[in-house]
Design a protein that fits this description.
By secondary structure, the chain is α/β, with parallel strands linked by helices. The chain is built from 19 helices and 11 strands. Strands 7-6-5-8-9-11-10 form a 7-stranded mixed sheet. It has a 4-stranded antiparallel sheet with strand order 2-3-1-4. Helix 3 crosses helix 5 and helix 13 runs parallel beside helix 14.
Length: 420
Amino acid sequence: MKNTDPRRIAYEVMNAVREEDAYVNLLLPSILQARKVDTRESALATELTHGTIRMQGIYDAIVDKLAKNTVDPQVRDVLRLGAHQLLSMRIPDHAAVDTTVRLARSVIGHKPAGFVNAIMRRIAQKDLDGWLDELTKNLSGDEALALRYSHPEWIVALLRESGGPDRIEPLLAAHNARPKVTLVARPGLISPKVLPGEPGKLSPYAVILDSGAPGAIAAVRDGRAGVQDEGSQMVALVSSEVTLAASDENWLDLCAGPGGKAALWGAIAAERGAHVVANELQEHRAELVRSSTVALPNVDVVSHDGRSGPWQPGSFDRVLVDAPCSGLGALRRRPESRWRKSEEDLVGLTALQHDLLAAAIAYTRSGGIVAYATCSPIAAETTDIVAGVLGENVQLESEHRWWPDEHGTDAMYLALLRIS
């Protein structure tokens, strides 16, 4: 029988993230479902996994200060989990120490148990603020913020540049807060009033859950509703609201995977009698789009390289480019991404973003709209990309931003370009 202990599950996911580049948001729910872990234990496993990985920069600094020698990666994962329980959860010290030592024995063996016990007891001597004060007393600027808020320093620098000096600390803090699950009621298929939860703050289609598994909701399973951040919903909504002269019947979602925006766009389009082509390069992601749009017969899912698709110039009235990006706007939902990415990753991404946007402009008729969106707030992936395509036949109509600290969403950027 598979182990259902929340700490063991959290350790397994962390180990897979470190060794196999696994994604927490995909792996953890599949384990919880496969092992039929009950609701309370699932909630604990989720907090342990997401919270520990988000805050591991702080926990690593504490462990490194206390340990005399290099710490084995498996032992470090166990200590990270233990530190999270001691410093960021309402778990009594003795219980956190005891369960962490038992976890070490279970997943590694008896040899490191004494070391784990000793480190845990020393961690417990201070609260989180006490440790942060000690660790940052000789640091300043972005270096101090990076440690205090558990982010790589290069990300802190880019976010400061994008959001400004007044936003940087609230933004970093928002990345470390547990996001609630947000549902979208796809218009024409279901009313948000019949979904469980409270109305969203921005999107008229949003419903926010306090707890519970969205997969247990029938409307989510059959495609009438979905799980979608409110910022993502606003991208689909705002990009569909721009007034067009003449026809407004043919829409293209150029980078549709995994399908959330395509489904909302498709539902809005269906109410207007419009048709949506949802394109996704990778076939396995195209399957996710098909699953999201299964209840929408006006959406055709295809798989092409968006830069060189089979469409003739001027074929579409609206084109949405939800470009592949660094995902630095979704750090609160994707805990491992802040540790997995590097500044060098941006180079290839920005070239791809430019090429996709240039192709989208070519596919759009005169008088049509191109919506360029990223789940990133940084200039290299947003305003710089847009500036690179503006010209006599491409005008910037408007820009929109949503922020975790201000709007409670992922950090989303949207530019609306009018083609002439």
